[in-house]
Amino acid sequence: MNPSFTVIGDLYNCLFSAQISNPEVLVNYQVWNQIKANLPKGYKLPDPVIVDILNQHASRM
Asked: What is the pTM assigned to this prediction?
């Protein structure tokens, strides 16, 4: 089993639509590399398409 270790979460800001620096946040390197490797190229969290759909439904309420 590979030992897991933490790294600064900002290394994964490229995965998020809103890239906000939080240098005090540490994340599991192995877990986040696996997440990044399994996302489609160019995918952002939250997915802008899903956010648009949710906003459309929220405006109807």
From this structure: 0.70
